[in-house]
Amino acid sequence: MTEPDELWRVRPAEEADVAAIVGLVAELADYEREPEAAEATVDDFRAALFGPAPLAHALVAEVRDDRAAGGGHGWMVVGIAVWFVTFSTWKGRHGLWLEDLFVQPAHRRHGLGRALLAELAHICEQNGWPRFEWWVLDWNEPAHGFYRAIGAAPQDGWTTWRLDGAELSDLAASVIESQP
Question: What are the distances in angstroms from CA 88 to CA 7, 146, 153?
Fold first, then answer.
């Protein structure tokens, strides 16, 4: 984590950050050309990140904000890393899945994205988790270049599959119907 006297810092998200996180997720959805896909609400994120048994986690990147009350220096959330724990049957150990990484365009190229990833790598190391994985849209060449620059490698030979909406409900119903 960075020291408070610096111009930016990375830290674990707190419940007070939820509205900023939801706002950044909406910005990410817009960047990824699917603004209507971001349906999660502040309440959804509050429950997922800070409910009784949270299964998702987040880090935030902040920059100094001179507009803070009283003319002092406050902090403004400008980046997020939302993640959860996975499990590899081949490794027999847990890992970390980065669901979303986003830094507002005006705050890129200052080390915030790298700092968020470094903190996640540190979490993996601390827990003995051998894998840190994520998806990147095929068309997002700036992200591909960024990830290659930190030493990450794309995993070819795998196709992502998804089941949601009516198809998910239909499959779930077929299991219930087949119960004796």
Answer: 38, 26, 18
Q: Give me the active site residues, please.
A: 147
Intervals of the chain under pLDDT 70: 1-5, 67-73, 176-180
CATH code for the domain of 150 = 3.40.630.30
Establish if 1 belongs to a structural domain. no
**Residue 2 domain-assigned (yes or no):** no
Nearest in space to 83 (alpha carbons), one of 93, 94, 91, 72? 94
| Residue 76 tokens, joined | 């403004």
For 89, residues 6+ apart whose C-beta sits below 8 A from its C-beta are none
Question: Which range marks the domain in which residue 123 is found?
Answer: 8-177
Instruction: Enter the pTM of the model.
Output: 0.88
